[in-house]
Design goal:
This protein has one domain. It starts with a strand and ends with a strand. The protein has a 4-stranded antiparallel sheet, with no helix packed on it. It has a 4-stranded antiparallel sheet with strand order 3-10-7-4, with no helix packed on it. By secondary structure, the chain is mainly β. The radius of gyration is 19 Å and the shape is elongated. A hairpin with a 2-residue loop joins strand 1 and strand 2. The chain is about 0% helix and about 60% strand.
Length: about 100
């Protein structure tokens, strides 16, 4: 089974056993939670359920594996012919999730 879920404003295609990185969630490490799916299908696509916006009765069980910071992104600003340059960095706070089950 595969499902399309929405977390933190982003949509993810998930299967059982997948690991996904999402924007930081206020959940404890090793805690479980569930979300409803927007689309549920089997692997070959014969059985397909599309929600408006969520499929009623669908359930995707997720487990929080770790809270971490992502890779550094360089932000470089420059104005030509004015001798202005600014170089800063940014590291997003992320949460790693494991898909326990899709139903």
């Amino acid at each position: 089974m595969l499902a399309v879920i929405e977390l933190g404003g982003n949509q993810f295609i998930v299967r059982k056993g997948d690991m996904i990185d999402v924007k930081k969630l206020d959940k404890e490490v090793n805690s479980n939670f569930s979300v409803e799916a927007m689309l549920v299908s089997d692997e070959d696509g014969t059985s397909l359920k599309v929600g408006t916006p969520l499929v009623s009765g669908s359930k995707v069980e997720l487990k929080v594996v770790e809270q971490f910071k992502g890779e550094k992104v360089r932000v470089f600003k420059m104005k030509s012919k004015k001798r202005y340059m600014k170089n800063t960095g940014f590291r997003a706070h992320l949460t790693k999730l494991e898909v326990v089950s899709v139903a």
